[in-house]
């Protein structure tokens, strides 16, 4: 009987011909996790960028795992919510914004309060689940976003942003967030020589 060996980070499984159903189940489970990560990325980024661009200081809402809830009836009547952005982050969340690091959701909230108004246009979005063996079976996804952002009345600039989000109870929370404005190598050289 021949065997097929599958290597998974942190684990090694040998499958025999009779174990092909195990392989099928493993692949089926992986596909379900990838599909869930993609749905989560679409829902999460829609709410995240809507909050960053339009509701940063105005409306509270809850981001739920599997079931994103947003009560539009409260938009015009809710008092300003000064903690809106910090609700997205773990208590120990990390934000690196164009090379400037901030740790902890209170400091992240202060950082967002100081940013000028913005408008993001998403060009591409990708998401992958993180293997259970790497994150101790904690439901976790990595989301990669690129597009254009305009701050106040300035010219739109390309940006890249990556999130590592994890389930905390029934909510998605950002563990790590890395935002970077993109510029060409020539622009970068020009700015370096001006300094």
Automatic annotation (TrEMBL):
Domain NTF2: 40-181
Keyword Protease recorded: no
Record GO biological process: nucleocytoplasmic transport; protein transport
GO cellular component, one term: nucleus
InterPro entries: NTF2, NTF2-like_dom_sf, NTF2_dom, Nuclear_transport_factor_2_euk
Annotated localization: Nucleus
Keywords noted in UniProt: Nucleus, Protein transport, Transport
UniProt-listed Pfam families: NTF2
PANTHER family according to UniProt: NUCLEAR TRANSPORT FACTOR 2 (PTHR12612)
Protein's UniProt name: NTF2-related export protein
UniProt source species: Timema tahoe
Taxonomic placement: Eukaryota, Metazoa, Ecdysozoa, Arthropoda, Hexapoda
């Amino acid at each position: 009987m021949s065997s097929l060996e599958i290597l998974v980070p942190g684990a090694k499984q040998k499958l025999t011909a009779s174990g092909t159903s195990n392989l099928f189940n493993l692949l089926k489970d992986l596909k379900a996790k990838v599909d869930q990560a993609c749905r989560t990325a679409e829902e999460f980024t829609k709410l995240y960028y809507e909050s960053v661009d339009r509701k940063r200081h105005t409306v509270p809402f809850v981001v739920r795992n599997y079931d994103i809830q947003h009560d539009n009836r409260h938009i015009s009547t809710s008092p300003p919510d000064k903690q809106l952005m910090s609700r997205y982050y773990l208590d120990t969340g990390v934000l690196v914004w164009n090379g400037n690091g901030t740790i902890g959701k209170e400091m992240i909230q202060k950082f967002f309060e100081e940013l000028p108004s913005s408008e993001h246009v998403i060009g591409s979005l990708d998401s992958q689940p993180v293997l259970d063996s790497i994150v101790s079976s904690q439901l976790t996804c990595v989301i990669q976003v690129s597009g254009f952002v305009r701050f106040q009345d300035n010219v739109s600039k390309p940006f890249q942003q990556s999130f590592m989000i994890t389930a905390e109870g029934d909510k998605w929370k950002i563990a790590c967030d890395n935002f970077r404005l993109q510029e060409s190598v020539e622009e970068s050289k020009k700015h370096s020589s001006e300094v």
